[in-house]
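yo

u said u wanted the structure for the complex thing, so here. seqs first:
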Amino acid sequence: MMETLNIILLMPEIFIAVMAMVFLIFGVFQGNRSTDALCRAAVFSFVIAAYIILQTNWDTQFALNNMLVVDSFSSIIKLIIIIGVIASLGLSVKYLHQERISRFEYPVLIMFAGVGMMLMVSANNMLALYMGLELQSLSLYVLAAFNRNSLKSGEAAAKYFILGALSSGMLLFGMSLIYGFVGSLDFMTIQNTLSSLEAIPPGLTVGMVFILAALVFKISAAPFHMWTPDVYQGAPTGITAFFAIAPKVAALALIIRLLYVPFVSIADQWMQVLYFVSIMSLLFGAFVGIAQSNIKRLFAYSSIGNMGYALIGLIAGTEAGVSSVIVFMLIYMIMTAGSFAVILCMRRDGIAVENISDLSGLSKNQPILAYIMAALMFSMSGIPPFAGFFGKLFVFNAAVDSGHYLLAIIGVLASVVAAFYYLRIIKIMFFDKPADLFDKEIDVEKRIVLFLSLFFIIGFIFRPLFVLSIAQNAASSLF
Amino acid sequence: MNFPPVLSIMIFLPLICAIMVAMVRGEKGDEAIVEKNVKHLSLFSSLFVLAFGIFTYQNYDATITDFQFVENYEWLASLGINYHLGIDGISLYFVMLSVFLTPICILASWTSVKKRVKEYMIAFLVLESFMIGTFVALDSILFYVFFEAVLIPMFLIIGIWGGARRVYASYKFFLYTLFGSVLLLLGLLTLFSQVGTTDIPSLIANPVDAGLQKWVWLAFFVSFAVKMPMWPVHTWLPDAHVEAPTAGSVVLAGVLLKMGGYGFLRFSLPMLPDASIYFAPLVMWLSVIAIIYTSLVALVQEDMKKLIAYSSVAHMGFVTLGIFSFTQQGLDGAVFQMISHGVISAALFLCVGVVYNRLHTRDISRYGGLVNNMPIYATMFMIFMLASVGLPGTSGFIGEFLSLLGAFQANILIATFATTGVIFGAAYMLLLYRRVVFGPQGNKDAAQMSDLDSIEKAILAPLVILVIYLGVFPNTVLEKVTPATSQIVFVYQDRNVPDDMVENSDGIIEVETQDASVSE
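structre next:
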């Protein structure tokens, strides 16, 4: 291993961080009327960052004295995150105006969160991991409270912050235990030390479990999911969309790297933990979701359940499993972006409505919106020929291939239960009597997100290899 | 011989036509013209697909036992999952059934569907595409994609255009079938991980070990039994049938139920022979219970559609009975029974639809004496009713007779019980017919109803012809089916089945010619 800075590898992160600071200064002088321009500029910055990533060599390289790593896995996940961030920026431009919370901090905070997420997936050292995670989390806490005049938004932010701080504490505690036993925070050193140990000291396992618990909190898997419904419901919808889309991918990618690089030789230990977490998430997501009447809460439970599926792929412990998780997360992210575009369209007389029953008879009033939503819901419940089916197919295939039949059976049965609430949305849109009209105008950004997500979930079946081979490329760099 | 890719054309043509239908637009106030154009375009599309179906049928070579019109392209190549299509004697007829019933469904909805006509027609065209795909797919994952995708248009058809309890019925239909389907998926993935391929012919050629077969078989069984439907998981069917619009019932009874039987014939039997033998008694007893129990339930129904729905469960019982006898006659009978039931039950639901459109009730007691004011209707209804009972000379007889013949060779006790179902079948169908068509004209509005109009005649006439033709010349079907089924039977010949259970395949031809001559 070379002891070099290799700072050139961090160009995308540095670029976005610098731009964010420039925007901040610009915003301070120009005030809130610059928000729209800054949002566009932020999208543009992320596009440039994506371009830089595409131009870099994806062979495994280390930067900042092994603190960070750039390989095909991190590059591809960063690209996925950038897509998600751009989608959520697009979704909320108009929304911020409508809710009169169009402040220039919004694009800046999103960009900092973006940098945090990109650093997370590149982390090759526990400290780098912590720094990236906290940069992201602190931005998210502030974003949750973005509508500072709303009581709910404040409540959501407080809950998120307190529980998030608790999980950060657990993360640090776990890291210190690992450091105590291994004597290093470097992923490679931990991996080598662990694989040379004959017996795993219990304290080490405890440390690993603490770290895992903290990260499971970030992806909102049960039993650390409590914050999700409240934050989803309380935060301004445009920001909920951001929460639902990008950070989960980053946190899951972080878990993947952590499990398959430093902790790969204690797979027996972490598999038990994830087994439990996965089953809990599947059941919680499926059953509790049925009782929801608020559509944002429903999507919170849906995301809990979907994390359960993603973890099934991780438990498989194979390269195919990891690539299935990447495909699953990409598809899930795109479906969520589309669904939130529809939720953001749910406005009557300029006021956002959030009850599932407000969608009543949408197929009469706005047929195209209703059909897109129906396709998204069928896709979410994993019905072919939509992309959502393939996400689940790859995950279950990995699980069955590695002999985890019980997990696969619980997974498919949970998907039947969860299908009930996705169907309910379709039922309300298509079978029920029309309610009052939604505001007709849909801005261009939402249209683009809606049609791109629809195009993706329908088009996936024709070229499934396109996505799958990218994911396989990403997974191969971890093995 | 090289053919154009007819199977792909038949799958994608309805989809393309559905997109075209979606694009039919008009000025404000032109709704009637738009509706008319939509109907004509859909009918034309479905007839176009039917033409391709007939072309396939004409060019199908009965002397080749292997799959024909094969198309094999890479799809998910890194997993080894391919876009592999092909048909044999079994799937040929299910494809024909799908392409034949879709134009009839569209015609049957010509005047009865009044709201959202465009969406309705699109749903049927998409449904047709998925149905054909299910029967021609030769890759198990591809099969699964179509098998489950069928739920989407059917769910919407029941839910949007259905009756009073449509929401309950559509949920029940969707969730029951989905529950079975996901287990089927796990079974398929298990086979995939063991054998390393999802290609159906390769899976048939490489059976897994007997212990694993049982688990996979059970997973398959849940799915196909729900779809079939077999007792005790049949309860979604009466609800779905009663609430679905007429054309929805037609396609549900005519094609969707056959997917279960097709699944048994394509997956369970050839891929899992040891497990199939092990579980055969279970299936046969369930079939007998289905036949007797649902026949008795049918006897007391007051709702016409519900009665026919329960009779469908009973008739499907004969199919499973025939399939799990593992004999040439039984399998031929099962396939024939499915084809014949597809035509007859479709026709019966259309007959119910005819009177429902006039009186808007399915209550049997609201009718009576229709023979006086609707003589043509009474005649056609009688032909279908007798075919459903299994009168010799109609297609219903051949299917039931051959299935029972197969069952008798496998287990005399079970077959004896099952045969009583034929009597019950006659009882409830004759009772239905007597109460609706004969008797006093107690209800004034029922006595006022007009006889069949030209569209209704055009729908029912081809079905009458088909029912009688298949009853008199069953060999036109069997000569193509037998080569395919004999391959399945062949697998069971050298297993530990008692010798007297398996006849040589020549016997069947003699039996058939006798039938034909008797009924002529």
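Residues 7-476 of chain A form one domain. Chain A has a mean pLDDT of 91.
cya
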